[in-house]
Structure formats: structure tokens, C-alpha cells
Design brief:
The chain is mainly alpha-helical. Helices cover about 80% and strands about 0% of the residues.
Length: about 240
């Protein structure tokens, strides 16, 4: 029963992990510009992220090391500093985008200009990271990501064409504006295959003291959680 609960909680966390402003913006632009033509990019990215997340969790369960620690110990700090600096730079940009996304959401709710929310939101995030526990960040905040399921309900309410959905599974390149189409395809893959997902997932496995007995849980969370999360992102 405990492992079933962990699977359910892991799926919720995985769904929440997909809800970020960059992914929303990329998916929204792809849908508004090309309708369902880029569904194939979401499918490809989902398959990749499921395999990568599963491998990150399996590594953590067997070796008791996070992905970052394993890279550092296996290749040395001089090599690890390269992906570390790149990861910090990317995460800084993601954090800035997330703060901006929260500010814009608050503007839509209150009618107050988003600039006024920048410092309070940044301070609230700092306070959460400084004072919050790993469990709170991993499970509590991720529950907010269940808002993604609203997109699933909205999709069924809109009754999309099954023929268009099916045709979107096949990669096609339009005759016009090809560069923009490919740019969005790469953007979708980048939004799905985010490095922080693997670091965070492996850290959670180590924090929860996973061992070889959790390999089945790991596969279920990686497959179902990342699959559902990506589905919610794709139908935005």
C-alpha cells in the first residue's frame, strides 16, 4: 500500500513538474499557429523524457547517488564544472521566466500591473526555498500542478477533430514558414526535456531512500507521471 501511495504521489509530482511558463508559452504558440501539426514533437519528447527520468531514478535507487553526484564522482569535478555552470545558467533563466509568469497570472487575477508583483513573488520564492523542506517543495507545491488537468477537461469539451489529432502524430514540414515551425518543434523538445527534471527526480529518490525494491515504482512514476504531464502540456 505504501508503494502504491508513492506511485500516486510521484505521478502528481511529475504532472506538476511540467507546468511552467516556458512550456505553456511554447505549447500555446504551437497550437495557435499550427493547430495539431506539432503533436508529434510532444510524443517524441515524452518518450525521451520517460526513458531519461527512469534511468535517473534507477541510478539513484541502485547507487544511492543523485545524478549530479554520480557525474561528479565518476568524471571528476573538473569535468563536472562544465555541466554545473551550464545548468546554473539555464536554471537562472527558468527561474526568471517563472517569476514573470506568476506576476502575469496575478495581473490577470487582480488587474494590477505585473511589475508590482516582481519583488514580492521573488521574495516568496526565496523564502520557500530557504525555509521549506524538500517534502514541501516536492509534494506540496507540485499539487498546484494539478491545474494542468483543467486543460484535459477543456479539450474534451471542445471536441477536437480526431482526424486532425491523428495527422498531427506524423511529422510533416509545412511549405511556408518552415524555420518557425522547426523552431517551435525544437522549443517543445527543450521544454519537455529539461535537465532540472532529472536532477530533481534523482534527488527525490535519494531523499526518500529508494533501493532496488523501488525499481517498479520508479518505472511506474516515470511512465505514467511523465506521460500524463506531457499530455496535459500537449493539449494546452
Amino acid at each position: 500500500m505504501n508503494k502504491i501511495f508513492e506511485i500516486a504521489l510521484g505521478i502528481v509530482t511529475s504532472i506538476g513538474g511540467f507546468l511552467d511558463v516556458g512550456a505553456i508559452a511554447t505549447a500555446a504558440e504551437a497550437g495557435s499557429t499550427y493547430s495539431f501539426q506539432l503533436i508529434w514533437a510532444f510524443v517524441l519528447g515524452t518518450i525521451c523524457v520517460i526513458f531519461l527520468v527512469e534511468m535517473s531514478g534507477r541510478l539513484a535507487a541502485v547507487s544511492k547517488h543523485t545524478l549530479a553526484a554520480a557525474v561528479r564522482e565518476r568524471f571528476g569535478f573538473n569535468f563536472y564544472i562544465i555541466p554545473l555552470v551550464a545548468e546554473i545558467a539555464v536554471d537562472f533563466l527558468v527561474l526568471a521566466a517563472e517569476i514573470g509568469g506568476v506576476c502575469i497570472a496575478l495581473q490577470l487575477v487582480t488587474g494590477i500591473s505585473f511589475q508590482w508583483f516582481a519583488l514580492p513573488v521573488a521574495f516568496a520564492i526565496w523564502l520557500l526555498l530557504w525555509k521549506g523542506t524538500f517534502g514541501l517543495i516536492e509534494n506540496g507545491i507540485s499539487l498546484l500542478g494539478l491545474i494542468t488537468l483543467a486543460f484535459v477537461v477543456a479539450t474534451f469539451k471542445l471536441h477536437p477533430s480526431l482526424i486532425q489529432l491523428g495527422s498531427g502524430l506524423l511529422p510533416t514540414v509545412p511549405q511556408q514558414d518552415t524555420a518557425h515551425y522547426l523552431y517551435l518543434a525544437v522549443g517543445i523538445l527543450g521544454a519537455l526535456i529539461s535537465p532540472y527534471l532529472f536532477y530533481f527526480y534523482s534527488s527525490g529518490a535519494v531523499e526518500d531512500k529508494w533501493d532496488e525494491g523501488y525499481l517498479g515504482v520508479n518505472r511506474a512514476v516515470a511512465g505514467l507521471g511523465m506521460g500524463f504531464g506531457s499530455m496535459g502540456l500537449a493539449i494546452k
